[in-house]
Amino acid sequence: MVEIVTPGQTKSIPVHEVRDEHRRRWPQQYAAFKRGTEMPARGTPLETWSYLRPAQVAMLKALNIMCLEEIRDASDSVLEKIGMGAREMQKLVTAYLKPAPEREQELRGELQQAKLTIEGLQSQIDQLKAQLRKPEGAEPDEPALRPPTDREPASRAQAKERQTLRMPPKAS
Predict the structure, then answer these.
(1) Which residues, other chains included, contact 48 with Cβ-Cβ below 8 Å and sequence gap of 6+?
(2) 15 strand-pairing partners
(3) pLDDT, tens only, 124-172
(4) Which residues contact 128 (CB under 8 A, 6 or more apart)?
(5) How far apart are CA 148 and CA 153, in angstroms?
(6) pLDDT digits (tens, 9 = 90+) for 1-35
(7) Which sequence spans correspond to the domains of the chain?
(8) What is d(CA 31, CA 34) in angstroms, rounded to the nearest whole number?
(9) Which residue has the higher pLDDT, 46 or 18?
(10) What pLDDT digit, counting tens, does each position of 115-125 carry?
(11) Separation CA 71–CA 91 (nearest Å)
(12) Distance CA 43, CA 60 (A)
């Protein structure tokens, strides 16, 4: 007897007598069965991908999904059974399984973009440092960012309060 297990299908697993059609369609699996050994892996095992937590691996295996390629190739109905985050998981698996040259080119582009962002941020940091170092009394191009001193109020409300406290009482 042969069970034909479809990824994502848990309720309908057809069982047939082994025919030549089955032997031709799945020769490695049939040879493993005849030897009495475990079935050979069909793709990248779920456990090898660090993105998945053990509970997710168990849930996917309960849905008869045994490798990453089955997630990548899953239909909408199977993704629905996986639940929330299934489409994102499918996108991540697809990216993970991309051939190395394609993935390398994509990663090089992302790295270049990150370098440009870092350079821009470093430039901003340098500008802010230069503003902080300007001598007192110099006209800044832009308002200098520095903490208030003991004599300076930190906010407008504090400035108003100090002004109120310093005013002499009105003579009547």
Answers:
(1) 68
(2) 3
(3) 999 999 888 876 666 655 555 555 565 655 566 666 665 555 555 566 5
(4) 145
(5) 7
(6) 666 666 666 666 666 677 787 778 777 777 877 77
(7) 2-96
(8) 5
(9) 46
(10) 999 999 999 99
(11) 9
(12) 14
Residue closest to 74 by CA, chosen among 84, 59, 89: 89
* Phi and psi, residue 114, nearest 5°: -65, -40
15-52 burial, b if ≥16 CB within 10 A, otherwise e?
eeeeeeeeeeebeeebeeeeeeeeeeeeebebeebeeb
Task: Give me the residue label for tokens 């993105």.
Answer: 51
Q: Does residue 79 contact residue 90 with C-beta atoms inside 8 Å?
A: yes
Tokens linked to 76: 């909408």
Q: Mind spelling out the 3-state secondary structure of 93-150?
A: HHHHCCCHHHHHHHHHHHHHHHHHHHHHHHHHHHHHHHHHHCCCCCCCCCCCCCCCCC
Q: Is the pTM of this model over 0.70?
A: no
Q: What tokens does 72 get?
A: 């990548």
User: What are the structure tokens assigned to 68, written together?
Assistant: 């990453």
Q: In terms of Cα–Cα distance, which of 26, 146, 108, 95 is closest to 16? A: 26
Q: Hey, what are 41's tokens?
A: 């892996």
